[in-house]
Amino acid sequence: MPIETVDKIWMDGEMVDWADANVHVLTHSLHYGLGVFEGIRAYETDQGAAVFRLEEHVERLFLSAKIYLLEIPYTREEIAQAILDTIRVNKLPSCYIRPIAFLGDGEMGLNPMNSKVRVAIAAWPWGAYLGEDGMKNGVRMMISSWKRHDPNIMPPAAKGTGHYINSSMAKIEAIKSGYDEAILLSPQGYVSECTGENIFAVRNGVITTPPISAGALEGITQASVRSIAEDQGVDYQVGHLLRSDLYIADEAFLSGPAAEVVPVRSMDEPVIAAPGPTTTAIQSTYLDAVRGKVPAYRHWLTNVDD
Ligand code: PMP
Questions:
Q1: 40 C-alpha vs ligand 1 centroid, how far in Å?
Q2: Of the four listed, 10, 104, 181, 248, which is most buried by Cβ atoms within 10 Å?
Q3: Are 192 and 216 in contact, with CB atoms under 8 Å apart?
Q4: How many Cβ atoms are within 10 Å of 291's Cβ, its own excluded?
Q5: How far is CA 21 from the centre of its chain?
Q6: Which of 104, 97, 259 is nearest to 194 (CA)?
Q7: pLDDT tens track of the chain, all 306 residues?
Q8: What are the catalytic residues?
Q9: What is the CATH number of domain 8-124?
Q10: In the Cβ-directed half-sphere of 203, how many Cα atoms lie within 13 Å?
């Protein structure tokens, strides 16, 4: 999907024209993949554009940076404000937002500690990441032949740019094999997550999602799903899943800011009746909550114009 361009990108403290938000070819992070980023959405609500779980995403950006000893030269408040400013200046009623902290040019070699940490924030309109049909009828999943990172190779708590080589390999394999999205197992053989989403299996009315020890990112959308499920009286647990648990699940679904809440239609070949009642209930509450239509979850939104 080509990106729909907008006017401005926030870069190192300033709003620059979209076309001028460039980096040098010797940018350190381009060569060695050390950078951290976030994916966030803002939605159109009756109070204008509002960012979903802004504070949590900014916090995770800083925690990812902490793991890699990157010092972001701004405060959390400055980054949160810059995100709101980027949406406002581009007059976006709803959008996807991509903050990234990376190492600039000027130093080469594997010691990253002398490189300048740079930060950019872009926002643009972005529709359903796994497609409208996927949102409605579910996506077709493939268990990837690629494994998720061992936690001692790539720390799962960090949303690191270089981690996503693994996701891209799995995505390529899934698409070339005729599926929509991949599920990666941990090196130990447990279900971990998808290329850019957490995964949930529903069996006998209980939702189970893998722990971060299986290599999954600790999801912010996942935490929202948990609140919605528990508020609806659905049992929710964090626990290891085997590949066969996915095959025999009554329902399964994915969550992430880009994908939102998406039902799974099939897992390799076994077909899951999609979308099932638990998935549908959580999906519809989530899609209302992000648009400010559920008072109990209004605190998850930060208005762009206050
Ligand atoms: N896992 C991976 C690998 C992801 O890239 C994402 C998207 N950030 C998620 C899970 C979902 O995480 P969250 O809802 O916290 O953004």
A1: 10
A2: 181
A3: yes
A4: 16
A5: 23
A6: 259
A7: 789 999 999 999 999 999 999 999 999 999 999 999 999 999 999 999 999 999 999 999 999 999 999 999 999 999 999 999 999 999 999 999 999 999 999 999 999 999 999 999 999 999 888 889 999 999 999 999 999 999 999 999 999 999 999 999 999 999 999 999 999 999 999 999 999 999 999 999 999 999 999 999 999 999 999 999 999 999 999 999 999 999 999 999 999 999 999 999 999 987 776 689 999 999 999 999 999 999 999 999 999 998
A8: 159
A9: 3.30.470.10
A10: 12
Place of tokens 């972001």: 72
Which part of the chain is CATH 3.20.10.10?
132-289
Closest residue to atom 13 of ligand 1, CA basis = 219
Both structure tokens of 21 = 């938000």
Q: How far apart are alpha carbons 21 and 9 in whole angstroms?
A: 7
Check pocket membership of 38 for ligand 1, CB cut-off 6 A. Answer: no
Q: Which CATH architecture has domain 132-289?
A: Alpha-Beta Barrel (3.20)
Of all protein residues, whose CA lies closest to atom 9 belonging to ligand 1? 197
DSSP-based three-state secondary structure for 76: helix
Q: In the chain, list all ranges with CATH 3.30.470.10.
A: 8-124
In short, whether 221's Cβ falls inside 6 Å of ligand 1 is yes
